[in-house]
Amino acid sequence: MSVPVIKKNFDKLEVENLVKEKDKSLSFVKPSCATSAHWNKYQQILVNNIRQKYIICNDCHSILTWTPSDGTNVMKKHSIACSKTKEPSPQTQPRITSSFKETSQVTHSQLHFFQQKILRGAVEMCVLDSRPFNITHGKGFEEFTKQIFDAGKHFGKMVDVKQLSPHRTTISRNIDHLYSLYHQQLRDLCKTISSFSITVDFWTEDFSGVSFAGVAIHYYQENKGLVSLILCCRAYDLTDATAPNVRLFVDNVLTEFNLKLTDKQYVITDNEPKMICAFKAKTIRVGCSCHYLNKVLEKSFIQNDLNCEMVRKLFDTIRPIVTHIIRSHKQAILTRRLQLYCKTRWSSIYSMFFTFNENFSDLPTLLDNNHRQSLDTIDQELLRQLIPFLKLFLDMTERLSNEQQPTLHLVLPCRQKLIQVAKTSSSNEHPDLAKFKNYFIQHIENDWPIQDEHFIATVLHPQFKQLEIFSKKIRRYAHDLVKSKIRNDLTMSSSSSTITTSTNTPSSSSTITTSTNTPSSSTITTLTTTPSSINRSDQDDLLSSLYDTPKDTNKKKMNLKCI
């Protein structure tokens, strides 16, 4: 006859079932070594008089894993979260800072220690998973690490990190759900927008021939300032790209968000004929100044023009050399990474020339005979003098592309600054650079049109309102535009548009506001021209030489006293 084997060790689930059933084999005792006051609420579990590695809470009857080496740590943590524990008084209630140290208590050595650990983890991730080095940069990664950090604070080491990591299939299936959620939130937000402008852009992928369209909305919020949001970036699904179809596509996108173009809204587009025709009616179109500027720059390096012949040859020589080094995987030897020209990326010509010049002395050892001969034909002095001039185009493009603050008032000054620099020459200036500048003076004045909205926005800005950098004829024209605009809006006197002004010419304390007449991104009548609203990034920069001359306040005070 066989003797029944008595089970000695039970897992947690089995113990919990025995407790629920109030099994007679259970018994509870305090360990002989239990001297802490925490044991007043806990007992060790015995099954068939065999001690198990579990304890039970006398208040909520929760089963906790415990071994003598744990001490009272398990009991301390559970006592804080015990559902049956009476709510402690505010004086004894534990605070969140009891679970981790405050930032002020973290020493520099501790911070450095964990920075090194995170750095090593990031390096291993890039190496083991073949991820790009910039994977740790971006708002998405920051949000992801915050979620991981919160999970770590909650679970500690109780949960394996693999249990929290989602599978790639799960991620892909949740994209549509997240898109629907944000899409609905954006629709709800658009219902509250009464004044807006949009930016429209179309482009075609060279290899597949598929056309894409992007529509962005810009509006002004009192507490956030200028806000820019992307409404769509999708494949163009109409039969052809004629002007009526382009307008139909944009109208359909806006209807999707309960928006509609009227003769009070502004549309910013490039200077393509179909775009001009598409937004000719029932709206106000403003040309994209960055597009005008960079098109002039692009044409100078592509089209045949006697004034740009040597500069174009410089471009045609440098581009194949950079392409060769990148494709042969030799640029890892260089101290600075080479940048290749891309026609869809503004100012990439400057990036290619600048990085090429920085690595010029190291290039001969990396090239074959054919490319080395091409390198010898490069006029390095022309290249050195050309780079600062191209840098100015990059600075102006970045200034006009600011999405955080209005930039319509900067179009006239930026255009004027480029013309001034192009007209300036030095005694040692390269002859071919002088020809190149003459080309730009002619084409910027002809191919970069200025609209009435640019004059109005510039006059309304405190630093440019006198337009001292322009002729009397232009100043008179711009000021007459502002006066006419104010008179027309006052005549309309509608409930949706209110204009407050003290004189015919806006002063530094004038404030002009509107709710529906003009979009915030164009900043024609929504620009508050008070000293506090001046963009501080404009101070002491390339445009500072174009500011109006400050008036002598002391002289004004003396004149007032005499009066």
How is this structure best summarized?
With 563 residues, this protein is α+β, with helices and mostly antiparallel strands. The protein is 44% helix and 12% strand.
What does this entry look like structurally?
Among the domains are: 12-81, no CATH class; 109-165; 176-287, 2-Layer Sandwich (Nucleotidyltransferase, domain 5). The protein is built from 18 helices and 11 strands. The chain has helices at residues 12-21, 73-81, 108-128, 139-155, 161-164, 168-190, 243-256, 273-278, 289-302, 309-327, 348-358, 369-376, 380-400, 411-423, 431-447, 452-460, 472-492, 553-562; strands spanning 26-29, 42-47, 50-57, 63-65, 197-204, 211-221, 225-235, 266-269, 284-287, 497-500, 511-514. The strands form 3 sheets. A 5-stranded mixed sheet has the order 7-6-5-8-9. It has a 4-stranded antiparallel sheet with strand order 1-2-3-4, with helices on one face. The chain has a two-stranded antiparallel ribbon with strand order 10-11. It is elongated and about 105 Å long. The relative contact order is 0.06.
Helix % is: 40-55%
Low-pLDDT stretches are: 86-91, 495-540, 553-563
Sketch the major β-sheet: 5 strands, mixed
The helix count comes to: 18
